[in-house]
Structure prediction request, 402 residues.
Amino acid sequence: MPFDVRPCRDREEFHRALFAIGQNFAGPPPDEMLDRWILLHGLERMHAAFEAGEIVGGAGAFTFDLSVPGGSLPCAGVTVVGTYPTHRRRGVLRAMMRAQLDDVHARGEPIAALWASEETIYGRFGYGIASWAGEVSIPREANAFAAPLERRGQVRFVSAEEALDLFAPVWASLSEQRPGVPSRSETWWQTRRLRIPDEEKGNPRRFVVLDLDGATQAYAIYTTKLGFEDGASTGKLEVLEAVGVTPQATAEIWRFLLDVDWMATVRVGLLPPDHPLFLLLATPRRVRYRMGDGLWVRLVDVGAALSGRAYTGDGSVVFEVRDEFCPWNEGRWRLAGGAAEPTQELAELALDVGALGSAYLGAVSFGQLRDAFRVEELAAGAVERADALFAWRPLPWCPEIF
Ligand SMILES: CC(C)(COP(=O)(O)OP(=O)(O)OC[C@H]1O[C@@H](n2cnc3c(N)ncnc32)[C@H](O)[C@@H]1OP(=O)(O)O)[C@@H](O)C(=O)NCCC(=O)NCCS
Prediction:
């Protein structure tokens, strides 16, 4: 290995490892940022790459559970990966990915997940696109719903302290409903979603809840930016997160957001393609949905990952998995009765571990992967059988980039 890679041992090392990604857009992380990161992330999950004793790269991982079809699994939430610009394209990232994935494997986390800054980086390390996410921008004149909505609840503002108690159960409900949702600790809420960053001090994010039938059934976090041009409002409302536990609650919180006065546009990112908003709106074409890759997933332990999610029906399929970077996964796996075991049976589908990661949460079918030459069908009907097994609705949704 050309570079030594190991977990950070102290604050100073963490500082320099974190600054590897920061080099591209910010100054050295200030003290309070470092405090937050160390608190949430832990020193030991930040790997640093060393050359002659100097840190030249950093790669972090959050510890959380990720919801998967029918349950949830321990997951490494890969984050703040960066190489110092002075050392790029010399194998620093490769060395860090090696050390990090070995560590994830040793910890017994069957999957890793990340948001990719560029979609060309992580495929070579076995990650595959596992969810779709997109942004919409809803002009005020196109914000009507297709069907009348009876508003039965009441929206109210809450403080960050109240939000901590009230939002968490709604988030837990989302993770029961959809794959792709990371669990959030109290520290996560406090240091990320509910924290008011310095640049928002003058006009901080708002926290609202929807009370319906005696319970908090939805919440939203949003910012507003006022503007007028030629006497007409050009205000923008940015939805950072809006989640409801039922379709009624989701519709009601969205109606609230769309109706805030003075806002010419409401923008939201990271929506999955099957989000109810598209069919709630009378004119969904006007929102100009721009969809891209969302969460990338890597099966670190193919057997445990496949056995850790639920399936539809009781079919079986034999995979031939290629995994150059994590060879312990290589070989034939038989998935039957909800469990995956190594097998000597003839393979029916051959694919890279990244393609299996793409299919894992249900966002990408084996038929799609076959048509893009990412899966070889070795036995007639195997793609159809695998798709019947893996099919899962609703689609995965990860509402936050980490
Ligand atoms: C992305 C980044 C970490 C890559 O680090 P690096 O140390 O230059 O990467 P390596 O030299 O280890 O490259 C490993 C392989 O990935 C390829 N690669 C690395 N970055 C790439 C990129 N941005 N696009 C395409 N290929 C890339 C290399 O060509 C190399 O390919 P090979 O295995 O076929 O030889 C670095 O460019 C960086 O810090 N970018 C800015 C921050 C960022 O985007 N971080 C990712 C956050 S999700």
